[in-house]
Amino acid sequence: MKFKVMAFLVAMAAAVPAFAQQAGPTTDLAKLEGGVFTVDKGHAKILFSYSHFGYSTSYGLFTDFDAKLTFDPKAPTSSTLEATINLDGIETMVAKLNEHLKTPDFFDTAKFPSASFKSTKITVISPTTGTVTGDLTLHGVTKPVTLDVTFNGGGTNMAKKYDLGFNATGHVKRSDFGLGAYVPMVGDDIALTISAEFNRVQ
């Protein structure tokens, strides 16, 4: 038993230098690297929430999406973001509701299988905060949407890939996109919470 404990401690001690080399992300623009990035689907979430008859807040998420970010640390406002969401990947943890949301009452995924977002303006507020405004196309309707963004930093991860990380929040009025079923009993305001890591591809 003593030998097993000692072997475990030795293994842990050997692993410490490898972890210590990971300095973590930096938000210093002078130290950041630019390029073209794609979303790391294993470390990204798009969550939504809304009021349910005023009694509770209902939550869900989109499980299938792609995003491409072109990032320039020397001119962050010239960066661009594009995303596509497969609406068939909606998940509320309630199977009947998932299916209902795909019908013509709501997203009508047979006719409108995806939503897209394309940035049109990026505003830097501080070294770690800003806004991204873009055109959201949903249910055949295109409207501008602004996200409040927090930059978590960039750096090389344990897999030796260069990453950037962001959190974002925003609001969408669903009736603006022809998705007004059951308003106002079921909330018209949809709150978005997004977190994503991006891996550099070039």
Question: In words, what does this structure look like?
Answer:
The chain has one domain: Lipocalin (Beta Barrel), CATH 2.40.128.110. The protein has 2 helices and 10 strands. It has helices at residues 2-20, 95-101, and strands at residues 35-52, 56-62, 65-71, 80-86, 90-91, 114-126, 129-138, 141-156, 162-173, 189-200. Strands 1-3-4-6-7-8-9-10 form an 8-stranded antiparallel β-barrel. A hairpin with a 2-residue loop joins strand 6 and strand 7.
How is this structure best summarized?
This protein is mostly beta strands. 13% of the residues lie in helices and 51% in strands.
Key features?
single chain, 202 residues, mainly beta, Lipocalin, eight-stranded antiparallel beta barrel, 2 helices, 10 strands, 51% strand
In total, the number of strands is 10
Q: Strand order, biggest sheet?
A: 1-3-4-6-7-8-9-10
Write down the Rg. 21 Å
Low-pLDDT stretches? 7-20
Return the CATH class.
Answer: Mainly Beta
CATH superfamily: Lipid/polyisoprenoid-binding, YceI-like
Mean pLDDT over the residues? 91
Which class do the helix and strand fractions yield? mainly beta
Secondary structure layout plus pairing:
Layout: H1 2-20, E1 35-52, E2 56-62, E3 65-71, E4 80-86, E5 90-91, H2 95-101, E6 114-126, E7 129-138, E8 141-156, E9 162-173, E10 189-200
